[in-house]
Specification:
alpha/beta; Rossmann fold
């Protein structure tokens, strides 16, 4: 069985009342991937905004494998020290990673964030030398639209992330850089300029699904299910 681990921040954990891109991707793979698979991770909750804590279990579909490694307000710097142990414990085969906005917004500059991404890759490979990873660049968000210095840091980090993938990709442990969601619109695809609504969830799921289909032949093109 192929074991996918979603890794991310608030856009990946989602909050009570949302489906999340994790759910949209699971639906797509259920319809198009030819073998057994599941989602794994040490956590299973959604974020409950009323409690300001990741305590909600209000998933819309009880069949959905809800496991993940995502946290509201967490970034590369938080996940890099954890990833090795969690890959080992959960026996993950593929990491689906959406990180960076939190780091750049609150903790580290583009260069420091890229170093944490490299540490993350190293930690994951130490736990599983054949781990596969799909990395999503930082996507459009309201702060980048209104804060030019921050937008410059996002652009710079995405360039460094692409270089990281090119430098560290290897046959036994391939790295993929997913293309940013096509025509992603913070006014149409989010509910607050950052967090995806239903259409945004589908666009994020498509970014991961199409990367895996095009590079590895897994599943189908998103929308063919």
């Amino acid at each position: 069985m192929l074991r996918f681990m979603p890794v991310g921040d608030s856009m990946t954990i989602g909050s009570a009342g949302e489906h999340t891109w994790r759910y949209r991707l699971w639906q797509h793979l259920c319809a198009t991937y030819g073998g057994p698979f599941t989602l794994v991770g040490p956590r299973e909750t959604l974020y409950d905004k009323t409690a300001d804590a990741p305590t909600s279990h209000l998933y819309a579909d009880p069949e959905f494998p809800r496991r993940h490694l995502a946290g509201w307000g967490e970034g590369w710097m938080h996940m890099a020290p954890l990833i090795g142990g969690e890959v080992r414990a959960c026996r993950a085969d593929v990491l689906l990673v959406s990180l960076g906005l939190i780091d750049l917004g609150f903790y580290t500059n583009a260069e420091q964030t890229a170093e944490n991404a490299r540490a993350f890759v190293a930690g994951a490979r130490e736990a599983n030398p054949r781990i596969r990873m799909v990395l999503l660049p930082v996507i459009p968000n309201v702060r980048a639209a209104s804060d030019p210095p921050f937008a410059e840091q996002v652009t710079r980090f995405n360039e460094l992330l692409a270089k990281t993938v090119a430098d560290l990709d290897e046959p036994r442990s391939p790295l993929l850089l997913a293309s940013p969601p096509e025509a992603y619109d913070i006014h149409a695809d989010t509910y607050d300029g950052t967090h995806p609504n239903a259409s945004g969830e589908h666009r994020l799921a498509q970014a991961f699904a199409d990367a895996m289909h095009q590079a590895w032949g897994w599943g189908g093109e998103y929308g063919d299910d």
